[in-house]
Amino acid sequence: MRNVKKKKVVDIYPPHTLEKNSSTGGEEENIMIRIESIPLPQEKPRLSARQARLVKEEPERIGLEKEKTIEEPEVYEAPFKPGEMRIKTRRNKDYLFSRFARNKLLSIILPLVFIGFFISSFYYLGFVVLTKAEVLIISKKLTFSLDNDQVLIDKNIAEANYSQKVIPGNLFIFPENDEKEFKSTGQGKDEQQAKGIITIINNFSSAPQILVATTRFEAPDGKIFRLDSRIVIPGAAMKDGKIEPSSIDVNVTAATSGPEYNIIACNDNCKFTIPGFKGTPKFDGFYGISNKPMAGGSLGSVPMVTAKDLKKAEDAILKNIDNKINEDFKNKIPNNLKILDGAKSGIKIAKISSDVSIGDFRQSFTVTAAGEIRVIAFREQDLIEFIRSRFDAQKPEKYDYCGDPTIEYKDVKPDFEKGTLKLTISVKQTICYHLSQDEIKKNVAGKNQKELEIILKSIDGIEEVKVNLFPFWIKKVPTNFNKIKISVD
């Protein structure tokens, strides 16, 4: 009987146990299945007659099969298929354990690192970067005063004369003019008389006829017009024993006001008679005609210029000139010059006129004005230097002027023709003990509260002092001078 061998399978790794290590980026693993052939225990086979015969007849073939049976173990490589079951290996368990240990270690180390970084940052900011000291000092002070001292501001000098109490000044002249239209507010009665021209005819005699002013002429409807001035009517000419009439044009005015006297021309079957000749032969021999209508007669209410209108208009235009000059102040007078109340003149009127008179029937009228304002100004710094020249002899050596003096101006008397300004001043000037900030910084740098009290009390000229340290937990003044701020009042 042929010696048949069984095959033994060892080291089988099901695919689902060999997972890809995603955290390490490993590649997929192929499952290796090794199959070995091992001989079965020796047994004497029981052969049938036919099998025995085949063994006897074909030994070579049997030998070949035998040789084939005992050849080297075959190795089978199974491909990886996702989703198949895998058996956990010892190597994978070790990997998972190391990953767990690493995560555990990181969970302990990271908070410690964060806490350490926070503590170091807090220390750096709170004890190095943000630290500062503020030293507030009130120095010793003295006050000088000057009462009712007289000073002269003069435009005619270039430099101050302290012994004469004179300092230079400036005289500014601002001329301005303006023209503006205003409305009339009055109401007047418009009683106008009609006017026109009459041609007087002499058809009476060759002798001339004199008519005095205001001689009446009566229209056919009874309206009366009067002669404006005295006239002489020329005599008529005689030709072939007949009279050739003469004529003269004269100006006439209606006897009363009103539009009803604005009559049409009177020349066809119409004539003006002279009531003064009525009842005499001259009544028919002298008469008048008109070739143009009478016009201009009116009666009603019209705008009229009043005295109040003119006064209001003049005040308004002068105020307008004043405003224009004040605008010039801003542009033409330097900012470093002082202008006192009383050092500016009022408007000096050079001209003011109007195109109407009081009582004129006008709806509007125009007013024109021209004037100027004068101003005396000076540099207040020149006055301060004059004041300090008065105090220099009294000021102790270790004191300085702190701030500008307080000056009260009184009795301002300008003379705009001469360009001078007299004034009286009262002054108060404060002087302060001179303290070196750099020296104080050197003394207080790095010192604690007790040391500060001793050091600052020992410095001359300090009246009162207060030290503020930031942040509040700082107990010493920083050693860096840039972090120490000194304020002296």
In short:
By secondary structure, the chain is an alpha+beta fold. It has helices at residues 49-57, 59-69, 90-129, 282-285, 307-332, 380-391, 437-444, 449-457, and strands spanning 6-10, 31-38, 75-78, 132-139, 141-154, 166-168, 170-183, 186-192, 195-202, 209-211, 216-218, 224-227, 231-233, 237-239, 242-244, 246-254, 272-273, 286-289, 298-304, 337-338, 348-354, 364-379, 399-401, 406-415, 420-433, 462-470, 484-488.
Structural class of the helix and strand makeup?
alpha+beta
Strand tally is 27
**Oligomeric status of the shown chains?**
single chain
Q: Termini distance?
A: 127 Å
Number of helices: 8
Characterization of the model:
- This protein has 489 residues and is an alpha+beta fold.
- Among the domains are: 83 residues, no CATH class; 90 residues; 113 residues, no CATH class.
- It is built from eight helices and 27 strands.
- Strands 11-12-16-9-18-17 form a six-stranded antiparallel β-sheet. Strands 5, 6, 23, 24 and 25 form a five-stranded mixed β-sheet that branches. Strands 7, 20, 21 and 22 form a four-stranded antiparallel β-sheet that branches.
- The longest helix is centred in the first third of the chain and has 40 residues.
